[in-house]
Amino acid sequence: MNEARFDFAGNAITQLCGVKYPIFLGGMAAISGPPLVAAVANAGGLGVVGGLRLPPLTLRRWIQETRALTDQPFGVNLVPQFGGPDVFEAQFQVVLKEKPRLLSLFYAEAYSADMIPRAKDAGLVVMVQTGSVELAKIAIAQGADIIVAQGSESGGHLNRGTIGIMPLLTSILSIAEGRPVLAAGGITNGDDVRALMSLGASGVVVGTAFIATDESNAHPLYKQKIVEATTDDTEYRTGYSFGWTYGTPHRVIPNRDKWNLLRFIGGGARAIDKPRMAKKLSLYAGQGVGKIHSVVPAAERVAELVTGLPMTTSLFERGDAYAAAGSFLLEQRRPLGWQ
């Protein structure tokens, strides 16, 4: 029964995705580029390329650049709803051809009944991020391998986004049918990881904490705002954000300059953007931002998160959630040939 023993509670995820730790980088648009993805992967986590808005040729280049920087598994995040079916299909074809280890999907409900089987047939692990039990049930019915419970504490865009991570995580675990469930929202350090994995999460997805890293594509002023913000500084909004349908919920550090009209717009400032964008936009960030005090190498951020992993614990000692995840993993590996 050695196959069923966990080195730590997230081992269902590490076996499924071929990584050392169940620490996932959020696939943040423009921010999660090849240097950051590779740095997280080389540190033992799973880096995820932010594919949102990337033209197919650029997406292919980013995947190839990531491969040049790491020989470890990584993933690609796509948002099918963003840009329409033709744009998504072109991106999807790139992913099918390039074959990263994992395809991460967000706002995918209208497309995933067709898309998930195609991705799995190509040998990809499919992860779907959801903000409600209803959306998790849809993803499970459509064949997702991994569900991400995205709590309302998360920065950036939220899929439904009104439920905190603790009630959402435990509710999704109860209907997950043995699938591993990752937690997302306000996670910045080992204490956060420990708390959520004690509730049954198989791992975590982290975004805001990786914005403030040396390798992220964020503008230096964006990184500075992350470091300077307090826990009280984020705001939940349903207004306008670049390219999204008006009313899509998102969380930002608001710009309070009343003479600045760009304060009403949520966004993420890239390193290549003019300083004006970083100074005037309300910038995406999660509620854990107050615990981020410096810009550090991504490997250091991973190492801090890893301190929260419950080490050397049998899946049978961890309880039903982990036992079910282990059983699901063993059943899924056989037909798909995962090693």
UniProtKB/TrEMBL annotation:
The keyword NADP does not apply. It comes from the Bacteria. Keywords: Flavoprotein, FMN, Oxidoreductase. InterPro entries: Aldolase_TIM, NMO. It holds the Pfam family NMO. One of its GO terms (molecular function) is nitronate monooxygenase activity. This is Nitronate monooxygenase. It comes from Pseudomonas fluorescens.
